From TrEMBL, chains A, B, C:
It catalyses: 5-(2-hydroxyethyl)-4-methylthiazole + ATP = 4-methyl-5-(2-phosphooxyethyl)-thiazole + ADP + H(+). Its cofactor is Mg(2+). GO terms for molecular function: hydroxyethylthiazole kinase activity. Belongs to the Thz kinase family. This is Hydroxyethylthiazole kinase. It comes from Mesosutterella faecium. Catalyzes the phosphorylation of the hydroxyl group of 4-methyl-5-beta-hydroxyethylthiazole (THZ). CDD domains: THZ_kinase (cd01170). Substrate binds at residues 52, 201. ATP binds at residues 128, 174. Pathway: Cofactor biosynthesis; thiamine diphosphate biosynthesis; 4-methyl-5-(2-phosphoethyl)-thiazole from 5-(2-hydroxyethyl)-4-methylthiazole: step 1/1. Its EC number is 2.7.1.50. The keyword ATP-binding applies.
Amino acid sequence: MNGVVEQLQASAAAAEIRRMKSLRPLVQCITNDVVQEVTANVLLACGMSPAMVPGLEECAEFARGAADALLCNVGTPNRENVQAMKLAAAAAADAGKPWTLDPVGAGGTAWRDKAIEELIALRPTVIRGNGSEILAAAGFEHRYKGVDSLDSSASALEAAQALAARSGSVVCVTGETDYVTDGRRTVSVSGGCAMVTLVVGTGCALSAMAAGFAAGASDPLASTAACCLLAKRAAERAGQTARAPGSFHNAYLDALYLLSPEEAAGLMSA
Amino acid sequence: MNGVVEQLQASAAAAEIRRMKSLRPLVQCITNDVVQEVTANVLLACGMSPAMVPGLEECAEFARGAADALLCNVGTPNRENVQAMKLAAAAAADAGKPWTLDPVGAGGTAWRDKAIEELIALRPTVIRGNGSEILAAAGFEHRYKGVDSLDSSASALEAAQALAARSGSVVCVTGETDYVTDGRRTVSVSGGCAMVTLVVGTGCALSAMAAGFAAGASDPLASTAACCLLAKRAAERAGQTARAPGSFHNAYLDALYLLSPEEAAGLMSA
Amino acid sequence: MNGVVEQLQASAAAAEIRRMKSLRPLVQCITNDVVQEVTANVLLACGMSPAMVPGLEECAEFARGAADALLCNVGTPNRENVQAMKLAAAAAADAGKPWTLDPVGAGGTAWRDKAIEELIALRPTVIRGNGSEILAAAGFEHRYKGVDSLDSSASALEAAQALAARSGSVVCVTGETDYVTDGRRTVSVSGGCAMVTLVVGTGCALSAMAAGFAAGASDPLASTAACCLLAKRAAERAGQTARAPGSFHNAYLDALYLLSPEEAAGLMSA
């Protein structure tokens, strides 16, 4: 049993979004080769500053210094970039800055799963993945097909709660409904548009947004849920005009930019 | 002389497209730094699952295991990623899975040409390039200007046939008319829209699509020709609304998503 | 004091744009991981041929041979790609070809600043950056926040002039007004649209355009100013229809493609 799942409070969500926009956090990203551009554009659209700083030679200095938050995404891992993630994550933690892990493709290969395990041991502030990835990262039974999830977020909720309890991280499993949990409390966010799954990088970019939302947050569970809400509202709005993934991509960026905190939270109609 | 060039049969093409969409192949891509996002989005739009898995540490395990097909693209080659392509190609072949080679920029530098030759020796299921690239890969006289082809596909047909006969691969040379040949049979696909040449990655993404089309295909020549047909019809449809490359990019993705197999094959009006 | 700042002459700018379009330069790019696709698409849209050739194994051969101009961009630097930039820049200079340096994120980390200094010592034809980057590269006081500039271009004009005098490069500092200087003459280009700062890679792509504009130019200061003018006019045109960054991205590419040299220079209404 998964305990009581709370609904996200609209006014609290609006406050988190306003706080993020006023901070305009600088989010350092060590992410995969595929989604660099869309990740940067998503961060810019919703009011953050992206900084892709993956180089071994400077990633830790940057995490300790200029960055407000860090994203580590293992979508195209190799020995060197996993090493960079570990150095940067340790530096961020040491400097009291939040960092997010996106365990892309967990369950795909043994080598990748080991890298993910080692990163979870460094205790991310937030872990964000789809159903299959969170099941795999938690060591539960799962199905694998590249970046597509064959497991619903609901079917991964128990795994998310277990992973949160074990790791000390807030765990966010996204899908038709998003669930955000710290192992004790669980908040759900519903809505969105299925077409996000046909635009590469929307999930990876959400993990980067979650890092920025965690910067300066008093409650990473609340900031992550507000982050999910903003993304779901933007996807809904994009889905109102776009009926295919090429158009949807731009409409999603536009909506992230145009939605006010109050509109995103449903306190005002968009 | 190039022998008889057949026209692609509409009903056979529709059947190949239906087969691909029903399989929803997981296409492992080891591709260049420039086109990762557009390649993934093209695969998603036409009903495939992309998986960019280039890391030396996991590329062979993935090719042998989860992947249905593999793309190797030498657009931004270096010692390490060429080594990854060789390992993954050997693993794919060993596991009975098709793989496609895109000899991007063949003829550009001596080092790249050597890498292409070594990959051809591993016998790709399909080799896909523009006129200049296929001429260069076949060892014929050619002209070079980066990713632009200065040689028409028709002028490279004889080279394509010679390369197919020598390599044992199906060779696909694309341009105003696409030609697909195994050295004995040659099929042509015409139509399309010249604006595809102003959107980076459309050719590279076509090679990735060809890998997915070859997964589970009984006849790689037929599956590759059907793949070219789908791309040409999508480009035509995009060209009907978009008059410049920014708009065209999204319209092309939209058309790949919206065209039914019957519309793409011309059995039904789009 | 910054001396007299000249206005760019419309007829001279139109002539530079016509010259570039007629040459259709092949621009070799060694650029960062984030902006590869947008850079290639911008070059294609304005009539150039992109060639991303960053590999240590072939970058110098390509710079000496096929390329008409070279871009070096340190947005995601590591030991290997900085080494590739140095080899390619030396080869380009040796072969009498222009090259552009984009000091992305100057002032961000000590390691990056050292790499930028070493590249400036190789005497780029053009150095292009935003206010904060040019201040940092010139060794002036500056503020840092990732790819966002917290310093206006006007506040960096003196630094740009000092950097030009010291390096022997044309220095271009972009922002609300763009300034192009060789340390003695300074030309300004105004206009544009603030939304370019919300689409990642527009600045990086401008540096690549500047490399192509410098190919075959008798006066790199004039060619760089014409390049800035084309970009500013395209941004204005995009801003007329797009009110958010997703739409703006494509509208900008469309405008770069559709604007004639005479329209860009203001000799004819667009």
